[in-house]
Amino acid sequence: MSKEHSENEEHNHKHGGVFGKKTELYFAILSGVFFFMGLIIEKLTNLPESASLGSFIVAYFFGGYFTTLEAIGKIRKGEFEIDFLMLVAAAGAAYIESWEEGALLLFLFSIGHALESYAVNKAKKSIESLGNLSPKTALVKKGDKIEEVPIEELQLNDIVVVKPNTKIAADGIIVKGNSSINQASITGESMPVDKVAIGNTTNLPDFDNIEKNNIVYTGTINGDNVIEVQVLKLSADSTISRLVKMVSEVETQKSPTQLLTKKFEKWFVPVVILLVTVLCFSYLVIDETYKESLYRAISVLVAASPCALAISTPSAVLSGIARAAKSGVLIKGGRALEDLGSLTTIAFDKTGTLTEGKPKLTNAIALNNFEEGEFLDIVLDVEKLSNHPLAKSIVQDLKSQLKVEGKNQAADIKAIQGKGVNANYNGDVVLIGNERLMIDEAIATSKAIKNQMDNLLQSGHTAMLVAYKNELIGLLSVMDVPRESAAPTLKRLKDIGIKKMIMLTGDHQNVADSIAKQIGLSDAEGNLLPEDKVTAIKVLKQQYSKIAMVGDGVNDAPAMATSTVGIAMGAAGSDVALETADVALMSDKIENLPFVIGLSRKSKSIIKQNLWVSLAIVAFLIPTTIMGGTSIGGAIAIHEGSTLLVVINALRLLRYQL
Ligand SMILES: Nc1ncnc2c1ncn2[C@@H]1O[C@H](COP(=O)(O)OP(=O)(O)OP(=O)(O)O)[C@@H](O)[C@H]1O
Ligand SMILES: [Zn+2]
Questions:
Q1: Which of 126, 263, 312, 388 gives the lowest tally of CB atoms within 10 Å of its CB?
Q2: Distance between CA 357 and CA 392 in Å, rounded?
Q3: Which residues of 94-112 are buried (b: 16+ CB within 10 A; e: fewer)?
Q4: CA-CA distance, 269 to 264, in Å (whole number)?
């Protein structure tokens, strides 16, 4: 009856009206006022019956107004849902001249729903409030003058001046000054992060590849110094706008439980209608008036409306996602939330995820009598063109430690996935990468060099070879250190019941083992090409049914997409990671992982509680009303009570703490 994907949740009223946003609530209250007035007139005065009847009819109007609007809207789309059932019940009550009970029904139903939408809006508001974080205007430098303009009017490459302790108005790069910046609005981290101006702004790489300590984001708060920021993203494309957009879209992604309850409702509602229709005619079988039969049928109709069931899951999903967003974690929908709450296996990428991802250069040795100065120039020039994290570190350390300047002779760099790079230097080919790359390209290596490499790998250094004109000319090694938080986080995950954790890396097996040992991980698979990571995930998925893959999106996006839940770290600065992941940690704090998993589990258990409560109430009320155990008023009170109960239960998630 109802379409699978109706965008608006059953109880998510967006009605406005004469009294603004709260009109629905005021109408419900007015309905109550007239209901009680009718009751008083009827019981306590000698006024004619038409006086109390009039009052009840007005109560019908106020109580039924929004319900009718909503029901009509849905019927137009071919959906018959709870609102419709309620209206039928109220009309039935009027027909058997039980105006009083009909008015009570519409009053309680409308007040229940108004409170419900208030509660659900509360969860939504906490999501939307993220969007209010960006400032309205920016101070733009125009020649010697500074002008204040609305942030929507900022152009790319404008220079924005940010005063101390004010909000930053654009995503961009610091070109002057340095400051420590509070990024809590995006990453959830309360500790300010030190940021500095970039040296030169010519030939800027992509936004994703600029060093994070040069970049600032819209809505974050400047520290004590004035800084100048060159705008690199239009206001509509800023990280925070995209974040808000993604969070508000998550509602359209139904969770498995939501789909299940929708399916259940699909056959349950017609069954109820059939049952109620049959009950209308019970006076033919048992000794009662047709009015009594109708009364019973109406009570059953009220009792059986699966209101609580319909709202139980969406309210929990919404609250869970809102809570995560507050801590800088974007969960893209109910599916990701529920999956994350039930998995026990996690795969991690190594570089940049379990390690800092900022390795230090430990060796740069020229081999085979190649001139050292030239060797270093070649390496610097080639690696300058690569955006691999290893390359960035090599370039930085060559410049700062060995004072290499380079000759800018390299061109045409090509990444060879999982192996290294190939580039052109002065017309000849340079290869930098692991042993496999050299084997593939038939570059001869001596026994002595192999031994030297093995020693380095053994002790956890990532070793690379450099070939030029088909000859080996040198050896490089770098050492990455595990994140300080990696070991405690893994332990925490084990404590909360994650059974299997494994590292997947493109680095050498020995390096993988060495890092794994340092952080207390028992499983590590090295030498994996990006496609091998995908295969590894597939195998693990078969074994454990659900698996999360935590990565930074650099060479693990395909693996993340294959896993049940892809979790991206440090997503604030990476569009790829933000797009591919199901869950994005905006900061690169791996210690947020136990928090999101805990939150997802809590959400899942609240969803379960809500389902049981709503099903149990329906299971209790249907037989009770059939036996005449409660009046229409009693049925509606229990019905609405249970609906509010599940919503309030869901809202507890907004206050979740690990
Ligand atoms: N720009 C580069 N310069 C030198 N070596 C490289 C470069 N890119 C890749 N390599 C070599 O290829 C190997 C595999 O790279 P890949 O990007 O697949 O994984 P990784 O960065 O080592 O680790 P992880 O898979 O954990 O992110 C590296 O360990 C390195 O030896
Ligand atoms: Zn409704």
A1: 263
A2: 10
A3: bebebbbbbbbbbbbbbbb
A4: 9
Which residues does the annotation mark as catalytic?
Answer: 349
Return the best residue to mutate from 348, 350, 388 for the ligand 1 pocket (most ligand atoms within 8 A of CB): 388
Is the CB of 555 inside a 6 Å radius of any atom of ligand 1? yes
Query: Would the CA dihedral through 183, 189, 194, 196 be positive or negative?
Result: negative
Strand pairing of 227-231 and 500-504? unpaired
Dihedral sign, CA of 545, 550, 551, 552?
A: positive
First to last CA, the chain: 41
Q: How far apart are the C-alpha atoms of 94 and 467, rounded to whole Å? A: 90
> Which numbered ligand comes closest to the C-alpha of 556?
1
Per-residue pLDDT tens over the stretch 549-599: 998 776 788 888 889 999 988 877 666 677 778 898 888 889 999 999 999
All domains in the chain, ordered by first residue:
20-128+248-320+601-655 (no CATH), 135-237 (2.70.150.10), 324-355+483-600 (3.40.50.1000), 360-479 (3.40.1110.10)
**ipTM of the complex model:** 0.94
Is residue 158 within 6 Å of ligand 1 at its C-beta?
no
Question: Across all residues in the chain, what is the average pLDDT?
Answer: 86
- Give the count of beta carbons closer than 10 Å to the beta carbon of residue 380: 21
